[in-house]
Design brief:
Elements (H helix, E strand, L loop, with lengths): L1 H20 L3 H27 L1 E6 L3 E3 L5 E7 L8 E10 L5 E9 L5 E6 L6 E13 L6 E3 L5 E7 L9 H4 L7 E4 L9 E5 L11 H7 L3 E9 L3 E5 L5 H20 L4 E6 L6 E6 L2 H13 L22 E5 L4 E5 L2
Parallel strand pairs: 2-9, 13-14, 13-16
Antiparallel strand pairs: 1-3, 3-6, 4-5, 4-7, 7-8, 7-9, 10-12, 11-12, 14-15, 16-17
Helix pairs in contact: 1-2
Length: 335
């Protein structure tokens, strides 16, 4: 734009000198033309500038770490009138690691719209949020630049790459099945049961009449069924980007292996600043994706509070707790 303004200033100075030294209608006409021409160019371009809309979107919603991904930027010019130059300034941040980057692009010849793409940095796990921080559009001559309001953002989730991991035998066998009993939904026949007071809505066939007579109140048999002990996978939500990548790789591999064996579980971590526990139930691939998305969206400093520093990882007795680190697994029975 600078060289165009310099060229226009030179043309204006030449027209002015021509008017000074050569009196006549032609010199006056030429000077008026040089003065008015930029105004006419701006008036011609203004409808297109005011009607332009910028769209920002990711090429894919999610990609594994290290994969190819881009943000697509598209300018729509419904008026179809000429625009000489489009300047866009974008910035994106990795919400997990806090790494930011600012990019600038110039696009010429956007009469029918323009489109370009930006390569996303997928070197580390996290949610990448890209926003347009500034948009300016030049008129036909490129002498005047008008800023345009921008809004909206695009998000891209960079997921971990599951690591090669040997699953502990105690998590794959059947030895932990049947250690706990829970009320069977809908009741039914069964050898194991518990006694409790009658609640409105309980079927009358479940009433233990003999014991109810002795206690002078209705007592109900609640049939119990065996169930697996609760399994908790936890990790510390702080560390360097390389450490977090290694932890999430192991966590993802372990969670997928458990799902392949039809082993529901929960994923927990503590906020590194407040210590508040994040708890996500994982029963299928969608639950795992939601847990990883939540973990990748929260800022992770290099140091912080560990979930092992006193936060309650398991909410019920008899469960099993596996803590995932960058170097391996720490497991044991939970209390």
């Amino acid at each position: 734009m600078l060289h165009r303004r310099v060229a226009y200033a030179a043309a204006l100075a030449a027209a002015l000198l021509f008017q000074i030294f050569f009196k006549g209608w032609f010199s006056a006409f030429l000077l008026a033309l040089v003065v008015i021409f930029p105004v006419l160019a701006l008036a011609l371009s203004l409808p297109a500038i005011l009607s332009c809309a910028l769209e920002l979107s990711p090429c894919v919603p999610a990609v594994e770490r290290g994969g190819a991904a881009r943000f697509q930027v598209r300018l729509r010019n419904p008026a179809g009138l000429p625009l000489s130059l489009l300047r866009v300034r974008l910035s994106y941040v990795n919400q997990l690691t806090g790494q930011t980057e600012t990019l600038r692009r110039e696009v010429r010849g956007a009469s029918r719209g323009a489109a370009f793409s930006l390569d996303a940095d997928t070197a580390h796990c996290g949610r990448l949020v890209c926003t347009v921080t500034r948009l300016s559009i030049c008129d036909l001559l490129g002498l005047c630049s008008l800023p345009r309001p921008v809004s909206g953002q695009a998000e891209l989730l960079v997921l971990p790459v599951p690591a090669s991991l040997e699953i502990p035998p105690e998590l794959t066998g059947e030895q932990d099945r049947g250690k706990r009993l829970r009320p069977r939904p809908g009741g039914g026949p069964g050898e194991d049961y518990d006694l409790r007071a009658y609640r409105p809505g309980d079927p009358m066939k479940s009433v233990h009449w003999k014991l109810s007579t002795k206690r002078d109140e209705l007592v109900v048999r609640e049939v119990l069924e065996p169930c697996r002990a609760e399994l908790i996978l936890s990790f510390d939500h702080f560390g360097t980007p390389e450490t977090l990548d290694a932890v999430l790789d192991r966590l993802c591999a372990l969670s997928r292996a458990l799902l392949e064996r039809e082993r529901p579980h929960r994923i927990q971590w503590a906020d590194p600043v407040s210590g508040a526990v994040e708890d996500h139930s994982v029963e299928d691939a969608r639950g795992l994706r939601a847990a990883l998305a939540a973990a990748c969206s929260a800022p992770a400093p290099e140091t912080g509070r560990s979930i092992l520093d006193g936060a309650l990882c398991v909410q019920s007795a008899g469960g099993r707790h596996i803590h995932v680190t960058a170097h391996g697994l720490k497991g044991g029975a939970a209390v």
